Backbone:
């Protein structure tokens, strides 16, 4: 598994050896990642892992201190119009001008995007139940997220970047957001990149996943590849052991006596062969949830 | 601790162990240095200049003390979940704050009296400070409640305080009568009404805020906002903006650009009303009115410097779930290290962003100057109708530069302050404010302490060096901006034309015998006028792509 998703389509985002310091803290450490056009990519990581920093580089809000970032083949700092004109963004802090009314926010945002679809914007406003006369500052947290999503979607962006879109929201708003993601990828060739803590949500909609930990991309692959290549396997050895024997692709292990459970990276068939070679019998062999894979990877 | 007041007082004193003494010292710093330099040069405390200074500086000093107390007390919302009534929360915040502020004001007055052999009154300022605290406390609710309604609400007690202040010091141009020497029954009544009104409004605010209900709306504010929007939107109307530039121009002006012209209109309203009243009264000395209007021409530049900083401030943070703020939080709300994501992700080039801001600044300063000039012309017209001696708008040694400088000054100050503020964020802003205050103080001390000839020589050399540095800096910034592809040919032509225009105008309007320092100064002014064209796109880039 590499830091480049395997795909036949051309990359929409190319990050090459990107590093970023904030004072003494290393937020991104030599990150390389290539994201192909089309589909949904989930960026997962713990607090302070570097997710927001990475996304802000894609939008030109942070300038690469080392390495390079290309979106649509363009540098987002040097060419903000080329990149941002085709990108929709929902920030983690739902940064919107409190003083504007919803109708002003829509009118104002529309002016920046030639592809803005008035009818679609109105449909979304209706579906999200946003009062056009309401001030943004008076909207509830959920309504604010919906307003942010509306302005990110209504110009039908080629790339939709969502930073923790569901954070702190109730299930109804989360459903709206997931619906928007699904709607967006329903249109051919569009790409959604979203960061999240909520792994069940990522598991439901993402077809590719990148795990970031302490500023490094630990894993980037399609959801199917990740699930197929991570197994929880319990082995029984012929005699009790005080220490678990080394096992190929092992990420962690637990147990005592003759029975040991391994979390491994590798294909099931190969792992079974390796177990037989060690003289052990496979008691159980189970696929893992994304949540388990993530925890194993970051606590390794 | 056995009682709520005891607990609150303990909390205030422990949280304010740095802010209370710190802001007490800071607040007294400027008056002490100014009075000290005057005292050192032999001017006695009975001199009118001391009284005028005390009148001007006292509200600033009280404001700084109040900021210290506000930081020490913390926001009232921290007590919302405690088993205390809204009445108790407001009462103890108001009483303890008013007592501390009154005490600090009395201490400061005693200090000045002791150091400078003055006999300034103590009781009047103490009472004023106590009432001012009530208004200050109410003021903290503005950003989180229905803002326009609350502005109306707190302007009522503030107006009462202002009225009382004017009753002590006379109206705009009549001489002062008795400086706080006595507190009459009417004064006491005004102060009591102001304090009671502020208290009642704050309590109502806390009650609504505590139950997370919106503050009651006044129909007037909705009506005013609708009128204001229809005025400011103008041709933009409610339909689609024609372009991104159009939309961003609307954003910048409606949020920031209107402030300076609005303030100018408010300030000019008072002399114009005075003129109208005086027009029907027996002849009096009009010099005061003219001086006031002319002085505001210079003050406009100082205000423009402050309003220029507005262009870099962050207005877009998510504050929907916050109810009221302490002073510290309030500052943190607006200051940001980088441009907020809402503006940063607009698909618009930095140089276009810069042009939009500069156009807004030009519009704002031009409107402000037009209002000021209209006021000046009105005053001169009335004087002419009343057969008063015409006032000359030229100053000896300054030729006819006064008016053009008064018009150019706000542009230079606002546009350069905006550029600086974008790069510097809050740390730089503090350096700027402290730097300006330090230079002003040093100048004050130098004027008071140095022989006139020596002071003039130092000034000439200093100003010449600064002028050369400004011209060099401008050239360097233009070079950098050109290299970064941030200067369009139209901007270059505009910059060169403006600089040449300023130099030609300066030459045509020059005094008969200009001082030598005028030449480098003119070059520096022309450089400062065009510097933002190159500096602002770079500054926006630095803030947008940190």
Residues:
């Amino acid at each position: 598994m590499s830091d480049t998703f395997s795909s036949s389509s051309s990359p929409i985002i190319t990050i090459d050896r990107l590093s970023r310091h904030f004072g003494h803290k290393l937020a991104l450490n030599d990150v390389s990642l290539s994201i192909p056009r089309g589909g949904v990519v989930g960026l997962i990581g713990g607090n302070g892992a570097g997710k927001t920093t990475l996304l802000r580089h894609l939008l030109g809000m942070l300038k690469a201190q080392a390495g390079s970032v290309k979106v649509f083949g363009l540098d987002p700092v040097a060419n903000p119009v080329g990149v941002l004109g085709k990108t929709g963004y929902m920030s983690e802090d739902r940064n919107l001008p409190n003083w504007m009314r919803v109708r002003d926010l829509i009118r104002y945002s529309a002016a920046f995007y030639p592809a803005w679809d008035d009818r679609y914007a109105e449909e979304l406003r209706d579906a999200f139940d946003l009062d056009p006369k309401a001030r943004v500052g008076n909207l509830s947290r959920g309504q604010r997220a919906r307003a942010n999503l509306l302005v990110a979607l209504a110009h039908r962006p080629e790339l939709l970047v969502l930073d923790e879109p569901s954070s702190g929201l109730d299930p109804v708003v989360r459903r709206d957001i997931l619906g928007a993601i699904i709607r967006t990828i329903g249109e051919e060739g569009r790409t959604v990149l979203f960061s999240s803590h909520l792994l069940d949500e990522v598991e439901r909609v993402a077809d590719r996943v990148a795990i970031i930990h302490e500023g490094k991309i630990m894993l980037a692959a399609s959801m199917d590849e990740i699930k197929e290549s991570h197994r929880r396997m319990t082995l029984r050895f012929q005699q009790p052991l005080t220490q678990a024997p080394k096992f190929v692709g092992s990420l962690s292990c637990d147990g005592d006596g003759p029975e040991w459970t391994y979390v491994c990276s590798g294909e099931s068939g190969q792992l079974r062969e390796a177990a037989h070679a060690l003289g052990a019998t496979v008691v159980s062999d189970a696929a893992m949830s994304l949540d388990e894979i993530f925890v194993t990877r970051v606590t390794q | 601790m056995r009682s709520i007041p005891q607990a609150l007082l303990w909390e205030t004193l422990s949280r304010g162990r740095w802010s209370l003494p710190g802001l007490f010292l800071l607040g007294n710093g400027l008056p002490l240095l100014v009075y000290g330099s005057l005292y050192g040069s032999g001017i006695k405390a009975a001199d009118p200049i001391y009284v005028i200074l005390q009148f001007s500086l006292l509200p600033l000093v009280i404001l700084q003390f109040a900021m210290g107390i506000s930081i020490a007390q913390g926001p009232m919302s921290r007590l919302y979940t405690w088993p205390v009534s809204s009445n108790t929360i407001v009462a103890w915040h108001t009483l303890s704050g008013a007592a501390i502020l009154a005490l600090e004001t009395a201490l400061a007055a005693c200090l000045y009296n002791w150091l400078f052999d003055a006999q300034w009154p103590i009781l009047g300022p103490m009472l004023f400070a106590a009432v001012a605290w009530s208004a200050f406390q109410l003021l903290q609710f503005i950003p989180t409640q229905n803002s326009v309604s609350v502005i109306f609400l707190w302007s009522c007690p503030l107006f009462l305080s202002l009225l009382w202040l004017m009753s002590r010091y006379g109206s705009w141009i009549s001489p002062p009568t008795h400086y706080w020497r006595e507190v009459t029954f009417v004064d006491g009544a005004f102060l009591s009404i102001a304090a009671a009104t502020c208290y009642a409004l704050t309590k109502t605010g806390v009650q609504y805020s505590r139950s997370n209900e919106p503050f009651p709306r006044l129909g007037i504010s909705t009506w005013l906002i609708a009128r204001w929007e229809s005025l400011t939107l103008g041709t933009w109307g409610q339909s689609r903006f024609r372009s991104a530039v159009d939309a961003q121009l609307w954003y910048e002006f409606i949020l920031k650009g209107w402030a300076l012209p609005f303030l100018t209109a408010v300030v000019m309203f008072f002399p114009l009303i005075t003129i109208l009243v005086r027009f029907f009264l027996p002849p009096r000395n009009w010099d005061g009115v003219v001086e006031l209007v002319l002085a505001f021409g210079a003050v406009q530049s100082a205000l423009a410097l402050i309003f220029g900083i507005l262009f870099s401030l962050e207005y877009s943070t998510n504050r929907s779930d916050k109810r009221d703020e302490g002073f510290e939080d309030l500052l943190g709300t607006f200051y940001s290290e980088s441009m907020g994501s809402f503006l940063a992700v607009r698909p618009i080039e930095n140089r276009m962003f810069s042009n939009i801001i500069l156009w807004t600044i030009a519009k704002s300063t031009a409107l402000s100057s037009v209002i000021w000039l209209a006021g000046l012309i009105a005053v001169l017209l009335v004087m002419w109708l009343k057969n008063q001696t015409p006032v000359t708008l030229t100053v000896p040694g300054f030729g006819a530069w006064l008016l053009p400088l008064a018009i150019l000054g706000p542009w230079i100050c606002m546009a350069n302050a905006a550029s600086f503020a974008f790069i510097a964020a809050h740390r730089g802003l503090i350096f700027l404010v402290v730097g300006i205050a330090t230079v002003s103080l040093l100048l004050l001390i130098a004027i008071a302490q140095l022989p006139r000839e020596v002071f003039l020589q130092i000034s000439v050399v200093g100003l010449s060096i600064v002028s050369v540095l400004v011209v060099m800096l401008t050239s360097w910034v233009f070079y950098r901006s050109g290299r970064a592809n941030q200067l369009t040919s139209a901007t270059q032509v505009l910059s060169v034309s403006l600089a040449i225009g300023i130099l030609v105008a300066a030459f045509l309007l020059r005094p008969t015998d200009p001082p030598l320092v005028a030449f480098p100064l003119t070059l520096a002014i022309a450089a400062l006028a065009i510097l933002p064209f190159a500096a602002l796109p770079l500054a926006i880039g630095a803030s947008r792509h940190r």
